[in-house]
Amino acid sequence: MLNTSALTPIQPTKKGELILSFRGIANIMSVGGRGSSKSFSMMLDCLSHCQEFGAEARPLVLREGWAGLLELQAELFALFTTAFGQGVIRNKSDGTITLPTGGILQFSNIGDEVSYNKLQGRSFSAIYGDEVGNYGKSAWAFMMRARSNLRVAPGRRAHMHLTANPGGSSHSRIVKTFLSKAPYWTPFEDEFGQTWVNAHSTYMDNPHIDQAAYRSQLLASTGGDKELADAWLEGRFAALGGGMFADVWDETIHILPEAPAFRLARYKYRIGCDWGSSAPCVGVLLGETRKDMRYSNGLYLPAGSIIGIDETDSVVDRTNLALGNGISPSGWAEQLKYMALVENELKAVPPVIHDDARGLASETVIQLLQEAGIPAHKPRKKDRPGTWALLRQLLNNSKTGDGPGIYFTPRCRYLIETIPEAPRSTLNPNDIDPKYDCDHGLDALGYGIRELKTNRARYGRTTGDY
Fold first, then answer.
1. Residue 42: is it exposed, middle or buried by C-beta count within 10 angstroms (0-12/13-18/19+)?
2. Is the pTM higher than 0.85?
3. Is the pLDDT at 23 greater than 60, yes or no?
């Protein structure tokens, strides 16, 4: 039972008490089903932290978006007012709650560089990240970067407490970083020497809701999707397979040190491209083998296998694959030419399958690329769920040897990083989560592999397979 100022006792749930019993010895990753009171346990952890640190308490409370952050701020203000009385002061414009003890809670969204920069030069005693399972790649990276602001006096322990449901954008990241390291309730040490514990709870651990009614609502909300229902009801991260491709991806199989020589593979080349301005452009050079062959390590590659040979992109910062440099179509054309003609010594730029956009003067990106000498055309058909099913089949074939597969060289950095982490959509498990903002390489790859797996002889100005 928490009783910070002797005004009002605050009682956690039984599972909440178990979660809080670890707060003095470990950082906490609290996962599980929806409606399990994870956020309230995190709030009680923050309250206990402020009791312990007194005037030195400087916890940072994070959510990715503003609306959720304001809701969480209001709930914490009500909780701390209950515990400390009317001396608690909330400043919405500064994003702070000041306590009678002198402690100060700082609230921030963490979605981009601007929000992170507001934290520069600040010192915090703890980080509380709510609903981190929904954080995109950049938000997750900035949250982890904020750990550099955790600074406490000798004898104190800086603390982190994160909460997450399965199925969000960071589903695979949470499995890889935390859940794969140790069973629930077993403390473990991460690669940086920090002690963590994975906590788990479901709606059945929350006595403050009508559990039967809530179960009915969750079942109705999943629309008959059993995997999603299992994930939300039972907090099973394994139910959703860890991501769209995580179960069929194996870097020891899918990454080749280098592409087989053309004289062995007799490649049919294509370049798949996804266009972006504020988002990055990504181009992937693909080669489909036209001969059965053995790779140097003995791996058998049947005809029709696809090699991701190289890629180019307009990413500004490798820590944020969602941000492009605003390259012009003419600049992008030169980048594609350099990849094909210089870096890979092809005789000509192969057919480029490129999504399109219209500029201010009604010109299209495709038109501008063609004027710059790029044999570009639109994808024949955009069918993302069908494309992901094709990619899954190719990845699986590489593992089983049941047919032509797909492989990548280390030069395909964007794809190697994003294929295994791409999350499923919670509304359509056959598609990637629309909130995942690093899917540009996957879209480029998808355009290319669909083109290679269809019969098409002519491409505007360009004829043949190169």
1. buried
2. no
3. yes
